[in-house]
Amino acid sequence: MNATKYLRYIVIPLIALLLLCGCREEQEETQLTEFTLRVDESVSIKLPQSNAYTLTADNPIIDYAQSGSRLDVTAIKEGKTTLTVMLDSGESRSYTFTVTANASQIGFTIISTPRVESWVGSSLKTEQTAGLQVSCEPGVDITGASADSSTRTYTFIYTETGKLLRFSAQGDFTQKGSLNNGVIATRENRNEPIQYETCTAVTIEKVNSEGKIWFTLQFADRSDIRIVTEVF
After folding, report:
1. Three-class SS string for the chain?
2. How many other CB atoms are there within 10 angstroms of residue 130's CB atom?
């Protein structure tokens, strides 16, 4: 009887200890799967062990890089996306990212300084940049050809080097809203060919009484370009 009691006193604490260890181990393996980031913020995620990983995102609003079992994610534009990670075992893990505006973006429609953001550096003040020529051409398309009156093309060019940004779109430029057929043309210098890229969306964020317009140009695989125009 004494031996039985002695064994019971040993076995019960051992079982409790094993259960506690199991709970702790399960908690340590648990990872967050939903993240809220501001634009330009980053997060690192520890992935389950696998010999190989396949990663896909259903909305290209994040940059991500995987090294071993570490996944680094950086938010590049507002929106929501699900990043699916496939393991070599055939299992998958899904991580959801909601990206909101950062402080700079929140203030974008408040500051009226004419500028271009995310073309040359973080912000280029167009009126204060020596050698930069800015123009607006109504009724002209991205190639310089005549177009209907609802089309406008804006050009930003360094006259000395030929470095160029042009964008054109079609629609109502007098009020806040979306425009159609957005295209940009870029060139590093006058000796290089012009590269054309279609915008996934062009939005007028604001038009003020002076005639300045706040544009956001969105793309599938790069950061937005944002522009506050001069008065033309």
Report:
1. CHHHHHHHHHHHHHHHHHHHHHHHHHHHHCCCCEEEEECCCEEEEECCCCCCEEEEECCCCEEEEEECCEEEEEECCCEEEEEEEEECCCCEEEEEEEEECCHHHHCCCCCCCCEEECCCCCCEEHHHCCCEEEEEEECECCCCCECCCCEEEEEEEECCCCCEEEEEEECCCCCCEEEEEEEEEEECCCCCCCEEEECCEEEEEEECCCCCEEEEEECCCCCCEEEECCCC
2. 7
Take residue 42 and report the two structure tokens written for it. Answer: 């980053």
Query: Could you read off the pLDDT of 123-161 as tens digits, one per residue?
Result: 899 999 999 999 999 999 999 999 999 999 999 999 999
* Torsional sign, CA 14, 16, 20, 22: positive
